[in-house]
Amino acid sequence: MVVEVGYAQAWDMEACAPWRPISAEEARERDAAGLPYVVVYRAPGREAPLEVRLVSWRDHYVGLWVYDAHGRRTYDLDMRLLDDPSRLLRRYSVGWCYTGPEMAEFDKACPRITVDLFPDGRGRRTEERRGQGGGSYVTSPGLRDEERWMDRPAFGEWPLLSAHVHGPIEPPAFEAAEVAEAAEPGDGDAPATCWRPPRPAQPGPINELFRPGARVTDGYHPEMTVVEPRRVGTLRVPSGLLAVSGPDIDHGDGPRITVPVRPGEYVLDEARVRFRYHCEWRDAEVTATEATAVRLLVSETPAATWEMAFGRDDDPRLFIEKQIVGFDTDGATGCFADAGAWGPLIALFERRLIQGEPDLDGYEDIDDGSMFMQRTWDEASGGELMAFATTGDGTYPVWVGRCEAGGVVGVVVLVEGMPELLPERDGTPTDAAV
């Protein structure tokens, strides 16, 4: 079987074609420099590629996409280069089992198998059975070490994975593809449809959630208008280390997320939106105001950037596309707290809320209609904890805002998920009422 091998700076996912083809020599140079490039494998007489390899060593990433004869992706393999430069972790894979040639690529009815692996031996295999019966079946992969890892091949010596999928009888013979056009220098102007290395979840319009007049949608309500943030109180952080965590989770190792700030007392407020909707039981249009986020305001300086905060065990090299990390909660509760007094503050929270001790010094229920519910304080250090309600259980990212100079200006938790920003009317902010 003859397999043609070509190189390019990127892969256009929409066109299913290479973008800016390059020579093998230039691809080798990009490989050595850690710059992104792709390798395309084709068989004569076949329109769709056999597979596409996506390489970006600076992002610790190698991906592999296998295609069938109909041009549908049938297998994705996400590999990561970690501490050992000689081998790659088979981090994440998805296989689609199309039931016929008429089924569209990534059809929701297509059965698929996902394998999620971690370097410490943990993993999960999820088989999604579509159609009659449906449902998902989750198990431990039970893979040997050599099945989790593969040796890192030298440039140009990658094995052809699609040989196992498409099943050629004889070993493939590789031939270099002709470069149809000269590649221009640089890769910063690649179209949005081109592949890029996986990124964790990105911040949405967080600044706009605190700007009255901004228009957003949560996907359910077509239009919501941001109103003035509601100031709830303050939080003392004398240690200079802010904790953001779920107070209802086991904290044997301390708070899930910590953010260094200047020692001091900081404003706590809520982002709010107003919207109209049809109330069925009243059979009328009504106006409602709801909180979308809670914030610890470190500075009045606007945030120039937002970033997702990582815990001490989070490794950015392992993140798959749009993955989130944050604090977990089983009781729809999060908290801001002084990490320096974390132990005493959590102990007070548990004694009152879980054990039900009445009239407890250092504890206060908050009943002002805000998302904040409980407050505890440590007399010895002066540190405080403020617990707030989320809209459910699960994992909540913590977003850290920074000014142009890099200093922390705010820490935000979205209690309703990330909304989408709507265009302003006539180029000007909308009114505070919808």
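That was protein one. Protein two is written in the same sequence-then-structure order:
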Amino acid sequence: MDMGSELAYDYRVLKLGGSLITCKDLPRCVRLELLRKVSEEIKKFIDENPNEKIILLHGGGSFGHYEASIFDDSRTVRTSEAMQELNYMVTKQLLKSGINVISIPGKFYTFDIVLNALEKGLVPLIYGDIKFDASIISADDMSIDIAKKLNARLLFAIDKAGILGRDGRVISELRRIDEVGRLLQANYYDVTGGISSKIQKIFENNLNAMIFDGSKAGNIYLALKGYNIGTLVRGNPNA
């Protein structure tokens, strides 16, 4: 069902990559100045587009992915605590920028909860998490689920210009998963499969998604506005 059309709104699903908002080589470190700029760009879009709804998600970066990569008896509780800490800092900055954000832990995610938040005029902020059985719930997976159900524009803000080819240049559009194959490399701490898994899931779910550099000034705003500023993964060539 095209829930987006049914609810009479245009939607944007924006996932802030963990590698974007945290320090890549330093466990439990947030890029606070970048997070401030990202929040301001999101706020600008919201103010200018009152008839469009945003769903935000964020990954684990050097918080959740780092802790989840250490397999010991306290892995589950450490990872859960790390993600709560990161989410608190992201939520605090978004609120400071004037965004009516409401935090939703990934372990409790349902699509109905997201709809309920939207209906109350709130901006859902869902984060990647670890379940009680120690399995990881990826923010990528949740963002894809939401975008598919809402027929929404799907945006992945990462710390690179897009998907890079062998020559180091951004690939402007991907139409088949086999076009990238061996070009992709996962980050050291990324236990959810990295960029390769992200692209595969986009194709499997017949979605179109933009993967772009969220650290470049203005890019978050431009992506929300609909500009092609990175790599368009065209999993649905008919859309």
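The domain at 3-234 is CATH 3.40.1160.10 (Carbamate kinase). Keep this in mind for the problem set.
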